[in-house]
Amino acid sequence: MGNKLTKDQAAEHLGISRSGIDRLIASGALRAYRVGKKSTRIDIDDLESVCKPIIPSGAA
């Protein structure tokens, strides 16, 4: 496991909004960990796995 990020840090890392992070978590695309009653952390390795390269349709 890598470093843990807050939702705000994860959003900044991906260049998306915090609500975008919330949607990824709610859909199951991004795993998050509850720390205490209010804090949520995201493993940076899980965050990297959300990013997938776009392959042009004619390239394959």
Task: Write up this protein.
It comes from Mycolicibacterium chubuense (strain NBB4) (Mycobacterium chubuense). This is DNA-binding protein, excisionase family. This protein has 60 residues and is α+β, with helices and mostly antiparallel strands. It has one domain (4-50). The protein is built from three helices and three strands. α1 (7-14) crosses α2.
Q: What is the number of domains? A: 1
Overall residue-averaged pLDDT value: 90
Arrangement of strands in the largest sheet? 1-3-2
State the share of residues found in helices, binned by percent. Answer: 40-55%
The shape, in one word, is elongated
Tally the beta strands. 3
SSE string, helices as H and strands as E: EHHEEH
Number of helix segments? 3
* Integer-rounded radius of gyration: 13 Å
Structural class: alpha+beta
Beginning-to-end CA distance, first to last residue? 33 Å
**Main sheet, how many strands, which sense, barrel?**
3 strands, antiparallel
Poorly predicted regions: none
Into which percentage range does the β-strand content fall? 15-25%
List the helices and strands and how they pair.
Elements: E1 4-5, H1 7-14, H2 18-27, E2 33-35, E3 39-43, H3 44-50
Antiparallel strand pairs: 1-3, 2-3
Keyword list:
3 strands, elongated, 3 helices, 3-stranded antiparallel beta sheet, alpha+beta, DNA-binding, 60 residues, HTH_17
Quick structural summary:
This is DNA-binding protein, excisionase family. The chain has 60 residues and is α+β, with helices and mostly antiparallel strands. It has helices spanning 7-14, 18-27, 44-50; strands spanning 4-5, 33-35, 39-43.
